[in-house]
Fold these 3 entries.
Entry 1:
Amino acid sequence: MKNVDVIIVARGGGSLEDLLPFSEEIVVRAVANSEIPVITGVGHEPDWMLVDFAADFRAPTPTGAAEAVVPTKLSLIQELDNIGHRISTNLVSKITNAKQHIETITIKSPKQMVMERYQRLDDVARTLGFIINAKMSDTRHKMEFVNNLPNIFADKIANLVKGVEHAGQMLNSLGYKNVLARGYAIARDANNVIISSTSEAKHIVSIEFADGVATIK
């Protein structure tokens, strides 16, 4: 079917046997598979057929189905009134909002605009001054550090020299040669191992003094 906007499946009141055809499988499947919207209005309001569940809209009566498809003149007039009221309300609201917006607009004088621009420039200049001073101060500290590097290196070298001298003094004071110079001697066996016990005295083959080594035969 062409040029069909909607299909109404309807029947006036009747017995259950009269309405059973609207629950037949072939009818229900046809309604469910219809590409055109289907409205049912079978029997009276308490009557529910299977076709009602397959339809796009179920009206309680045939009259209700017709009214759902073709609205009455009164409902059209009411709808037009409602649309007109909404349009009027919306227009009044937009006009009121526009008026309030216009009332809030403040027109600045040229002098005020110039003063505001001057204030902004002054703020920018002050901010740039802070940034430049901070950069210059940081650069000055870095230059002072670089200029002071020779002194820092000199102090480090002096401390290293003192450390080396102190280590040399400690080495000299702890060296066994100094001990030998104070009158001590070192006895060794044939394997040049130091003898530190009288029980091994018979194995002594050399004695080291501060001024040299004496061999015992």
Entry 2:
Amino acid sequence: MSQTPVETPPVLSSPEAVADALRAAGYLPDETIAGTVHLAAALEKPVLVEGPAGTGKTELAKSIALATGARLIRLQCYEGLDEAKALYEWDYRKQLLRIQAGGTGGSGTEGWEDVEGDIFSEHYLLRRPLLEAIRAEDDVVLLIDEVDRLDVETEALLLEVLSDYQVSIPELGTVTARRRPLVFLTSNNSRELSEALKRRCLFLHVDYPSPQREREIVLARVPGFSDKLAGQVANSVAALRQMDLKKRPSVSETIDWARTLQLLGVTEVDGDALLRHLHVLLKHQSDIETARTRLTR
């Protein structure tokens, strides 16, 4: 089946349009992010978004879906994920019922051939996220989250989808995308991905934001928050990220701290305020102790 030609949505027609659309959706992009998303839409290429955990990689895909009005389909990757959970599987229960029903209605080779042709039709196919995105009639953003958690063998399942936007089903043949989805793969870089997978994607590295950009993120995500206090929060978190920690504070944890300060009516961030709220920003006791030691010197 041929693919339906799809024009680039107006909100993705230029880096500037992408930046404006993402800001309207509550995501503050930098120039590189906006430019890469624009190219991905124009070239119909997947984007591999790599960087530390908690820097907004998943949120980028969600915000693009919101900005374009597309349906978000998410495949959450994990060790042991197989074809049946990523692509498709047959509904064996319904197939068995159909076989039993066919067996009571007649006999002979011709009758079985009819049943066999029926049970391997799309009516008995359970679509998983990858096949659902390929078969979609509407605009779709496909998020393949934490792809670095996949086994190397399972990673190979993605190659056909990302190369030709198609899935091969032995009983049905090759299913080709009717409308190409906009694909985002995220990686926390816990293992090296294959060169074959990387070749099929545009690459985007999303790091922790600068204090200035993080201040803007806080102001956008915490309504009514003080501009001055947002700057103090961003600078304090940036200082924590310079320490030797097992897990540095993510942007979401910065936002949590800002909401905490707003809830408690704090109007000034000093060393004592940071010490009191380390448990909001850090997730390991060893990190809290490291930060407390550094801050009290």
Entry 3:
Amino acid sequence: MALVLFIVIRTFLLEAFQIPSGSMERTLLAGDFLFVNKAVYGAQIPGTSARLPGFNTPHRGDVIVFAYPKDPTLSYVKRVIGVPGDIVEMRVGDVYLNGRAQEEPYVQRVDPMHDGYDPEFNWQREYLVRRSEDQRRRYHPTRDNWGPLRVPDDKYFVLGDNRDNSADSRYWGFVDVSAVKGRPLVVYFSYDRGTRDAVPWLTDIRWSRLGSLIH
């Protein structure tokens, strides 16, 4: 019975997730261990593409866990910036949503002076708003200057809070609604992965982060 309850809870209600990188600093740190609420958006039934009914849908500002579009075996965690129908844009590092600049107190900038072009940004041309074919060809997005892009139906645009060190929708595109796994709830364990101790998970625990809620 205990085993059955564990399987049911892990499959449909809660799942543990570890933060492997610093793409969500300051909100989430490398070495944080989270409990993810899978029921809130409707857990996927194993072996099928069907999902249980959810209590909610991702909203702007929500932190979500999802299957990485380029490799669904990997799970990523980012913050939702745009929902279906939104127009998203970035100007000199500031996010604009439907034409309005957004206040983002959770954002961290570590290298604001390095704003470079990456060929991975080229996917954006297909979703540019109000651009001619010639303008699309001449579109030259960078890390901190891109858009405006319209978010398609059943898609989400996500960014990491650590804007200068995050591989997110700017690079690889939108997140499909079917890829969303859940919403992180709480940090149940955390340790400093940057230390060189033999057992940092035991000696370098971040006690102040244990039990902290994720916003």
